[in-house]
């Protein structure tokens, strides 16, 4: 008997909410500040903080399921029709339906468009649902499309693979996935699993990753031509319709049947594989150093990401299929039947929760809380639990073979320090010593190695692939942070410091590219008026491009403008949060740009430049320049006429 389960602490219950009707299976969706839950003919939005119901919308058809949330819109499907509803006050009244269209749950979204696999591939306006274009393949398209770099990739019902322009729906190329058998048949079934980014030393363009359930293969096709780059036969080539493919940390993880394969994205070469006693179930997850999978035999396994060495396994108390995911810290969460188990990175039980009714869909995680919807219609928001002293004592006692578990309970709290010293300095097996060599040399944060601390909020960090980034932590409210992080990340403008990753747990953080150069404040003493105008003029052009995408800087300063060997980069489009009084508008940024020029000048500006700066700083926003680009033009005019 595993006595630790009897004493395992319960999680902190943040809140619960009981629905009036039974929920639909798979009907919980989490995004930002809202938990979306559907019953048969209703969709409701609940606050992640309190559980209070913000709104509820009834539908005239049954089987409603939320399938996607993006930019103030939640998309729900009844299997045949997709409904677009307001999810924030900024887009209209909570829960109001803006439009509906044929398309079901085969949906991909961007900021401006929604792409639906509805027999044809339809592109519709995300705001009003208006059909922009329609693409018809050789056979009906009832697959989920994938959007990447102004191209939509989608397969049809009999094995055709298409690349379609997002601009007008024109076909860029088509390919038969199985190039060795170009005659497609109704038995051939493929799906686009994702897009692999470019690899400088191998391929100049990305690759489309495709799964073929008929042949049990994973393939990568050139994103620009459709040409086959590599194919890997998973599961010994046996048919495996339930395969799971995940791309993370520079690896491709393929779970097919009882086997987990780890592949190189560039070449498709197998790095390692393991065969488990039972079939793999659910998704594959990683904390950056370990890989976690659940099985139909009721176990969760952890393997070293580097070489596949098994680190531990954890068995649930109930028989049947166990699935797993990770929380905000990369720690596994396993669920089976009515039981939910939260583990630490070493596979030890941190807390457990037994429900009256089994979860009806996978749990969701945000802000260090786990959100679970059970079959009896209850939403549970569960937080981290602190171990009771007796539970901690049992855990320590379990680690020593020579202490009987029950005998160690009494008085073991006082012995904990001595016991831990003995355990940590005792004999290690050869396998344990090999595994310890794989452990990171630096502390980690959401999969990033933390190296030098640059200030109270910022670390020099590295990704699992060895790329150097800056990682910053913030104190902004999660809802505000998520809004601003999405705005910054979507820019993709030359001259804007790029966001490489972000999250809101365990506290808001963002990873950005490290820009090599000198800030304008560092070189201000060397700048004359002409040089200062050149630097700020280029910064204004960059800010103008951001404005066209609806993004404002809000904190322009000499420290946030970097001069590099190749030009100017505007950095730290940071999160100003709420309550700081900073205005989000074009006139406000124009005024900040004018102030930036003045901060770089040691002498009084020339008369033409002074006139330009005075207009940029006008107290009436309507009297300032109508755009940052117009301000940049006037700066250069002043420099020529001084």
Strand portion: 35-45%
Separation, N- and C-terminal Cα atoms? 87 Å
Q: Residue share in helices?
A: 10-25%
Task: Count every helix, treating DSSP H or I runs of 4 or more residues as helices.
Answer: 11
CATH topology of the domain at 242-386: Methylamine Dehydrogenase, Chain H
List the helices and strands and how they pair.
Elements: H1 3-7, E1 12-18, E2 23-31, E3 34-39, E4 42-47, E5 53-58, E6 65-70, E7 73-77, E8 81-86, E9 97-102, E10 107-109, E11 113-117, E12 121-125, E13 131-135, E14 146-148, E15 151-155, E16 160-165, E17 171-176, E18 190-196, E19 207-212, E20 217-222, E21 228-233, E22 244-248, E23 251-256, E24 259-263, E25 270-275, E26 280-286, E27 290-295, E28 299-304, E29 310-315, E30 323-326, E31 332-336, E32 339-343, E33 349-354, E34 364-366, E35 369-373, E36 378-383, H2 389-398, H3 405-409, H4 412-424, H5 430-437, E37 444-445, E38 448-453, E39 458-462, E40 468-473, H6 478-489, E41 499-503, E42 509-513, E43 518-519, H7 520-523, H8 529-548, E44 561-564, E45 567-570, H9 586-600, H10 607-616, H11 628-640
């Amino acid at each position: 008997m595993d006595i630790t389960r009897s004493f395992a602490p319960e999680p902190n219950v943040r809140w619960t909410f009981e629905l009036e009707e039974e929920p639909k299976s798979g009907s919980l969706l989490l995004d930002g500040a809202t938990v979306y839950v559907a019953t048969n003919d209703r969709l409701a939005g609940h606050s992640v903080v309190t559980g209070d119901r913000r709104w509820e919308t009834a539908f005239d058809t049954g089987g409603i399921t939320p399938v996607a949330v993006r930019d103030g819109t939640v998309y729900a499907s009844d299997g045949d029709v997709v409904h677009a509803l307001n999810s924030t006050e900024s887009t209209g009244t909570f829960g109001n339906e803006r439009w509906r269209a044929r398309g079901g749950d085969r949906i991909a979204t961007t900021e401006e468009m929604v792409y639906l696999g509805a027999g044809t591939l339809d592109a519709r306006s995300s705001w009003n649902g208006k059909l922009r274009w329609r693409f018809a393949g050789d056979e009906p398209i009832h697959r989920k499309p994938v959007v990447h770099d102004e191209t939509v990739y989608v397969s049809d019902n009999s094995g055709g693979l298409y690349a379609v322009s997002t601009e007008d729906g024109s076909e860029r190329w088509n390919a038969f996935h199985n190039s060795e058998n170009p005659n497609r048949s109704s038995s051939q079934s493929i799906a686009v699993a994702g897009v692999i980014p470019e690899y400088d030393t191998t391929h100049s363009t990305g690759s489309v990753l495709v799964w073929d359930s008929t042949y049990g293969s994973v393939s990568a096709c050139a994103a620009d031509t459709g040409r086959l780059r590599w194919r890997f036969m998973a599961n010994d080539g046996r048919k495996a319709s339930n395969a799971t493919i995940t791309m993370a940390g520079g690896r491709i993880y393929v779970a097919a049947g009882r086997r987990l394969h780890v592949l190189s994205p560039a070449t498709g070469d197998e790095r390692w594989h393991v065969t488990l006693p039972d079939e793999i179930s659910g998704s594959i997850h990683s904390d950056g150093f370990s890989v976690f999978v659940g099985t139909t035999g009721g176990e969760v396994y952890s393997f070293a990401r580097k070489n596949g060495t098994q680190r531990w396994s954890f068995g649930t108390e109930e028989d049947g299929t166990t699935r797993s995911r990770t929380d905000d810290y990369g720690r596994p969460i396993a669920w089976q039947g009515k039981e939910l188990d939260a583990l630490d990175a070493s596979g030890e039980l941190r807390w457990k929760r037994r429900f009256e009714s089994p979860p009806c869909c996978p749990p969701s995680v945000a802000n260090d809380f786990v959100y679970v919807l059970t079959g009896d219609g209850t939403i549970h928001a569960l937080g981290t639990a602190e171990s009771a002293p007796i539970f901690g004592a049992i855990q320590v006692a379990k680690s020593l073979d020579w202490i009987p578990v029950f005998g160690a309970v009494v008085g073991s709290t006082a012995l904990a320090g001595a016991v831990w010293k003995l355990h940590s300095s005792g004999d290690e097996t050869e396998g344990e010593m090999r595994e310890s060599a794989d452990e990171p040399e630096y502390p980690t944060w959401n999969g990033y190695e933390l190296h030098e601390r640059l200030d109270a909020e910022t670390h020099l960090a590295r990704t699992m692939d060895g790329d150097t980034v800056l990682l910053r932590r913030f104190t902004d409210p999660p809802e505000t942070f998520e809004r601003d992080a999405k705005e910054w990340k979507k820019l993709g403008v030359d001259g804007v410091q790029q966001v490489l990753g972000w999250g809101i747990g365990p506290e808001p953080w963002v990873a950005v590219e490290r820009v090599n150069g000198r800030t304008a404040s560092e070189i201000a003493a060397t700048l004359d008026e002409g040089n200062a105008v050149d630097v700020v003029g280029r910064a204004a052009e960059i800010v103008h491009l951001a404005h066209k995408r609806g993004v404002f800087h809000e904190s322009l300063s000499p420290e946030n403008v970097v001069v590099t060997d190749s030009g100017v980069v505007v950095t730290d489009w940071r999160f100003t949060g709420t309550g700081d009084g900073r205005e989000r508008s074009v006139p406000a940024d124009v005024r900040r740009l004018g102030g930036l020029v003045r901060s770089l000048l040691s002498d009084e500006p020339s008369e033409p430049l002074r006139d330009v700066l005075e207009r940029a700083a006008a107290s009436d926003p309507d009297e300032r320049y109508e755009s940052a680009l117009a301000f940049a033009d006037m700066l250069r005019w002043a420099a020529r006429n001084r």
